[in-house]
Predict the structure.
Amino acid sequence: MLGLLGAKCAVLRFVVLVLVVLSASIWWFLLDARAPGEAANLFDVDVYRLLIEDDEDLPTAVRVELVGQDSAPRFAGEAGGGFSQWPLYYTAFQIVSPITTTVIGGAVDDLTAVEISQSPNASFDAEAYARLSASYRTADQIYITHEHVDHVMAITRAKAPEAFADKLRLTTAQIEALPRFAPPGQDLARVLKELTPFDITDPTRIAPGVVVAPAAGHSPGSLVFFVRRNDGAEYLFIGDIVWLMTNIENLSTRPRLLQYMFFSPPEDRETVLAQVRALHDLAKAEPGLTIVADHDGGHIDGLIEAGLLEAQFE
Ligand SMILES: [Zn+2]
């Protein structure tokens, strides 16, 4: 009788242990994504503003190209975000001033759009990709927010990158990642291997009304771009620091599991969480500032509707 009781207790202890380990794993891999209670002023818009305070010829147009569209469950972009679908866009941006044009982003090509599709309704817009590719020839400068597969392809898989290579302003970390994104079965074009790095350690003015600042965390080469349009509208392009604007609102980031599945090298999670806190505080302090996350389709649609972004490059 006592022996039977002992065996029952052992089974119970085992079940409890399994439940504890399972709950802890779910919490750690899927739910623990909270930004800290405070963070430094990591995106100091006053510093950015000082750099462009005397600028004339401010940008007259801030345009977006929607190269690919897909959808994914919200919990993938925001831990605990639920099962509803979020419209996931693959984008690039064009900032046009009377004297200079800056393009940010390389988006996906047709092959990549299929490879990384998250839903059956994923689509690729060949005309948008052609406009993005053509925009490099007329741009004065070309940047990327960071060196990930869905932000570089119009550059690394261009048929003739020598036509625009001298306009590329990529950091060492970004350049070092490019060979991974060469056309299938081919080497990266030599001209892209031999780029002169554009490395910055501080916020830097790159065009009238346009400032770039280092923001390593999501990737080693991540950058943010501050823009002031000639009507006073101000923007902060944050790449993939968050995928969803609700991350900033709700002070949470992607589930840890995603980082292991998608990112190589993995994100610097602690830094990203501090950036999310800094963006949350910034959004509160500067309600007129338009923060643009590369993939938040719903938010980008709203900005197009509000006239803050123009759909399609010219
Ligand atoms: Zn990314």
About this structure: Residues 32-311 form a domain with the Metallo-beta-lactamase; Chain A fold (CATH 3.60.15.10).
